Amino acid sequence: MINDLWYKNAVIYSLNVGTFMDSNGDGIGDFVGLTRRLDYLHGIGIDAVWLQPFQPSPFRDDGYDVVDHYGVDPRHGSLGDFVEFTHAAKSRGIRVLIDLVVNHTSDEHPWFQSARRDPDSPYRDWYVWSEKKPKNANEGMVFPGVQETTWTWDDRAGAYYFHRFYEFQPDLNTSNPRVQAEILKIMGFWLQLGVSGFRMDAVPFIIGTKGPDVVKPVEQFDMLRTFREFIQWRQGDAVMLAEANILPEDDLDYFGTDGDRSHMMFNFQVNQNLFYALASAETKPLVQALKATKARPASGQWGQFLRNHDELDLGRLTEEQRNRVFAAFGPEEHMQLYHRGIRRRLAPMLGGDRRRLELAYSLMFTLPGTPVLRYGDEIGMGDDLSLPERNCARTPMQWSTEPQGGFTKGDKPVLPVVTGGPWGFETINVAAQRRDPNSLLNWTERMIRARHEAPEIGWGDYALVATRDPGVIALRYDWRGNSVLVVHNLHDAPREVRLRAGTPEGDRLIDLLGDGHSRAETDGRHRLVLEPYGYRWFRVGGLDYILNRQEI
Ligand code: GLC
Ligand code: CA
């Protein structure tokens, strides 16, 4: 079982092929370039990559507007290059997850072109139409401030079409059995080419009912079960990682109480409250978010993340909490987006403060679930706020001090490389950090090693350990007779806490990251002195878990 559910104790790394490594000097990252960088990824110790869309696309939404679900955009290479890549990844033990974007297509997709041209087209029912303008056309936009409506008139079709996202992304009629069959076919195709699963884009919208009369979409959860059965039948180790920014009360519907729907989901609830905790040094809302999202089936797993390719969405915080995060991490209007989030990268949000970066990462690595890193965050890359919307945090990977940060030999990168100043490639790059044992890159590598060696976090159950300090959070993970205790001080000042590990062997704590081992005092409590933003990972009891661990 342990090795079958590989995602339970894994570290996932997300990247965009187009901005990772360009092999031929045309300024666009490609699969040949990415394949050459696999040893770098292997060296960091990650278990899986999640690739953002690389299929043929006009790239009006960074590839989330697909025109052919069965291809590789020629800018990134060929299907042959893709298979070479998945093969090379596999030989290094790295699994490949890809984005599956099937809530909508590009309006240039041949299906939509056929559907809009002819009411009798076999593809007409693949999209969602209305002859009259629906009453709720001005509601439910995902990109408020940029997107004006969810129903747009199409002259060629003589009807309005529905689009949850931008107007060039018509929604597929996902209730149509033919569309559902096509989705399975797409998944089957990529599984055959070597992927181990999918980051499913926009899941609540895929499974929600759509149409001009739909006031409140109803989720069709059976679809998730069908997807899961299909992919597991085709390939046993394949997983679905759902993007679903939902309320905790709906989590089990998405996982399936019997573990028969999504294997994994991103924990948006914890993500927002984590940023609130970092901004305010108040951990209570984070603890509440952890409790609210605790229940999940045995095979279900959270993906824990800090930043991703989208804005940091703070829509689920109270207005007061959100304002506090804005004030701390994105005070200026051009740092904010869609009236709900911050579009910056992590390192500039934290002022490049190494202590805070380590704290944030250490939390991400030790929250219940599987950590999902974003390319460039391992070296503390910055952003370029002169770029529109979310592109600011999607600039090319900074490899070296070579021109264009070593990303391309050409002089026209697909997005500008961050240049000059504290975040420029001249200062922040892989080559320099590789040589420096104290760099963020080498720190991240050590943390990933430590995280793998603490499978309790990925597999186990956690208990909150009282610290009596609202800014210091302590969690103990228990799994198969072993325990790990992690303590984080969110204050900008040192703190002393006294705590009980809470297990029979809990009078000894072995520091997993340094030599701050601890023995309990006579009252059974440990006295821990934490630096500002300090963190500790301990193994409880000091037993060597490798001796004690049972493989099943
Ligand atoms: C998801 C993606 C986002 C994209 C949108 C439309 O939210 O994360 O980047 O714009 O779906 O596909
Ligand atoms: Ca290229």
TrEMBL record:
InterPro entries named among the record's database cross-references: GH (IPR017853), GH13_cat_dom (IPR006047), Glyco_hydro_b (IPR013780), O16G_dom_2 (IPR045857), SupH-like_C (IPR054049)
Pfam families membership: Alpha-amylase (PF00128), SupH-like_C (PF22157)
CDD domains assigned: AmyAc_TreS
Domain Glycosyl hydrolase family 13 catalytic positions: 14-408
Any single biological process term in GO: carbohydrate metabolic process
Gene3D superfamilies noted in UniProt: Glycosidases, Golgi alpha-mannosidase II, Oligo-1,6-glucosidase, Domain 2
SUPFAM superfamilies to which the protein is assigned, alphabetical: (Trans)glycosidases, Glycosyl hydrolase domain
SMART domains according to UniProt: Aamy
Name the UniProt record assigns to this protein: Trehalose synthase
